[in-house]
Task: inverse folding
């Protein structure tokens, strides 16, 4: 943990190493040319938790996710997934994870079922098991009834759930979601989260998610980390972080998670246009595909 980070209890750390962390990043650094996207990040995500990586645009969240997926190369020792080194054991890491990127990963010209079946083939699900596993994944995200409709007719929320089904087809131990609800209306956002939490409850998988939405993080994440300028500035359960700020302020007010992040990141948030609630930006797929 960097010096300026405020750290709360870490459920991933156990005595005797009985529970293995799903993800560990140690002094993770990644630059695009002169831009330090991630600047010395220490992080442990415990097996089975829903962990939220929060922060304004450009904080470095997607870069962290992409380093963990092995899509961006990092030196040995910086990132481990269930004990596997992301640099030395790339294929072992990839086999453990499901990834839903911000960009569209569903094909509008295929049905929901065909989209998921395509992923089943990519992930080498055996022919014998394929149709049952595809049906199971569609059922898990509430798309069984819409499975044979073209994805081009799906709403933004249904597309997101379809992408979730695609990522689930390999039964990943670690599911990574980059801004899963951006651009969706509140009802669709709730539906996406309900399916994420239901799948987590059913499978025990670990979920690492990035989001701008403080209210979602507060409601659905077991722990959160605030990223700002490539570093983690606060880490803990939402309740812990809010309670710590309340104690620091000692003025009887009840702060929100957003207040916590303003407190640790200071005015820098505004300078970068990083208003957490000011999410005008939407995914290209926000309302419909096709
Ligand atoms: N492919 C790239 N080439 C150059 N710079 C990049 C690239 N990808 C990201 N960056 C820069 O790295 C920094 C971190 O970007 P990143 O996308 O990780 O942030 P983020 O927190 O995920 O923000 P957002 O929510 O807007 O995606 C930003 O300054 C961004 O402009």
Result:
């Amino acid at each position: 943990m960097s010096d300026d980070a405020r750290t709360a209890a870490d459920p991933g750390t156990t005595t005797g190493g009985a529970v293995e962390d799903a993800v560990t990043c140690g002094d993770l650094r990644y630059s695009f040319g002169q831009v330090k996207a991630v600047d010395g990040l220490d992080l442990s995500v415990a097996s089975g938790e829903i962990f939220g990586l929060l922060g304004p645009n450009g904080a470095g969240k997607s870069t962290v996710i992409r380093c963990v997926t092995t899509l961006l190369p990092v030196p040995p020792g910086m990132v481990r997934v269930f004990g596997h080194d992301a640099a030395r054991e790339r294929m072992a890491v990839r086999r453990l994870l499901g990834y839903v990127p911000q960009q569209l990963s569903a094909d509008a010209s295929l049905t929901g079922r065909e989209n998921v079946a395509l992923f089943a083939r990519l992930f080498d699900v055996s022919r014998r098991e394929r149709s049952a596993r595809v049906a199971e994944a569609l059922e898990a995200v509430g798309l069984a009834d819409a499975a044979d409709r073209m994805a081009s007719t799906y709403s933004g929320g249904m597309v997101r759930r379809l992408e979730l089904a695609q990522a689930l087809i390999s039964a990943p131990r670690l599911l990574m979601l980059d801004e899963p609800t951006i651009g969706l209306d509140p009802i669709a956002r709730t539906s996406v989260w309900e399916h994420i939490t239901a799948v987590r409850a059913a499978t025990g998988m670990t979920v690492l998610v990035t989001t701008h939405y403080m209210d979602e993080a507060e409601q659905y994440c077991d722990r959160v980390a605030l990223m700002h300028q490539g570093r983690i500035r606060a880490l803990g359960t939402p309740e812990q972080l809010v309670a710590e700020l309340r104690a620091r302020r000692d003025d009887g007010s009840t702060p929100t998670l957003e207040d916590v992040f303003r407190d640790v990141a200071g005015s820098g948030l505004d300078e970068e246009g990083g208003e957490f609630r000011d999410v005008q930006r939407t995914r290209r797929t926000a309302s419909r595909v096709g």
